[in-house]
Design a protein that fits this description.
It is a single chain. It contains seven helices and no strands. It is an all-alpha fold and 157 residues long. The longest helix has 19 residues. The chain starts with a helix and ends in a 5-residue tail after the last helix.
Length: 157
Amino acid sequence: MNYSELEADILRLIVEATEGSVRAFGEETVTRLVQPELLRGAAEDELTEEARAALTTACANVLTISAAELHDELATIYEGILVDDGLDTGVLTAISALAHWKSYLEQNRRGELYELAIRSIEDVDHEVSADLDDFLATPEMAAEYERIRQLLDPGAK
C-alpha cells in the first residue's frame, strides 16, 4: 500500500466508523501522541517555563480536560514557544495532537480525527522511515495501521 492509498483508506475508515468507534479511536490516538516520553527531547530554550507547564498539564489530562481549558493551555503553549523553527519533533507532535483534539471536542468534526491518525502514522514513520511505495512494509507501520483499522472498524478481520 502506498502512502496515498493509506491516507485514502484511513479517511474511508473514519467516515464509515460509528460515533463510538471514532471517539474510542480519538481518545486512544491522542493519548498515544501526548505520552510524556515524547516531551523529553524538548530543550530548555524551546519553551518558557509556563508553556512547558501548560503542555505537561494538557498532556496529562487530555481525556478529562474541557475544550475551553485545552484552548487556554494551548494559548499559553503558543505564547511560550521560544524558537522560530526547529521545535523538537515530540513536542511538535504533542502540540499538534492537542490542537486537533481540541477542535474535535469543540466541533465534533471527524476531519480532526483523520489529522490525528495522520500524525500517528507520521510519528511511526519518524521512527522507522517507511517506504512511500510500500508504506506497510515495516512491522511498526503495519502494526500502527492495524491499530487504527481495528479501532475504527472493530468487526474487520
